[in-house]
Amino acid sequence: MGAVRMDEKMLNKELMAKVSRKFYGHTNLYSKYTPKIPEGAEREYIRMVNEYTGILKEELEAEFPTLKEIYKRERDAEVQGRREDSATDFLLAVIGIFNRIRNKVAARCLSFGLKKRLLNLALINRRMTTKEWEKVIRTSLGIDIRKDYYLGDFYLDQLAKWVSENVDLITSIPENTLDKMKDIVLDGFNRGRRTTDIAKDIQLAYGVSRKKARFIARDQTAKLNGQIQRAQQMDAGITEYIWSDCGDERVRRSHRRLNGQKFSWEGEGPETDNGRHCHPGQDFNCRCIGRPVFNRNTLNLPVKEDGGIKVTIK
Ligand SMILES: [Zn+2]
Fold this sequence. Notes:
Pfam families: Phage_Mu_F. The protein is an alpha+beta fold. The chain is 65% helix and 7% strand.
């Protein structure tokens, strides 16, 4: 008991001396390194959603010849005025076909293991974000942190919440797209459009859904990254950050305005657009990063050399 306390004390002293030098007598130390968005996790996510939306494409293509045939038959009947019920027959047939596609897509999506894959993506994201965090600490303070501290149950509830939100976001894509496609077909029939034109619009709707899925992948990767960073920094006693945009032309003006300014991790963050408040990575498609500002008086890091003791530097 006494020995442990002794070790801890000595370690504290040693660390304090080591880290204090980096502050050059100041209270604050701005991180020398700006962590990066985990692009590997983003790529993996995009690959996964491409595969997922591909299921919709396959099932749609399988039913399209039938759809075309019924369309031609009922359209001809409608034009020639042979039957009164052709439009109704067409409507019912289309609803049947789209229900069939929907059920097949749903069944295949179930065996896709979306939740498991998303959890895996969340873990990859956390691992990469932690690697960047380690780099921040090493380059700024000259010490190594205990990575295992962040790779265990560290904010696992946060990851779980992200997973369930992302399951909803991704599964809604084929559902909404199929609704849109059904409308295109029915509207096309009423207006007497050619099947080739309808097919083109269906293709376009599919393209939109792929784009939307990729947008979600990028947006959600940055969001999770931002959440983990905030949690890691606040847990380490860091209360402030420098807003850092990624510097390319896609950065929105309201975020560029914040670039280089210091904000608090507490609360909901600075105002970005029209009364909206956020921290880096929280806004739609935001790739900004919070570069930590270390405070000598509050710093509290899980340090590698301590063999399991969380050391507070005071
Ligand atoms: Zn941004």
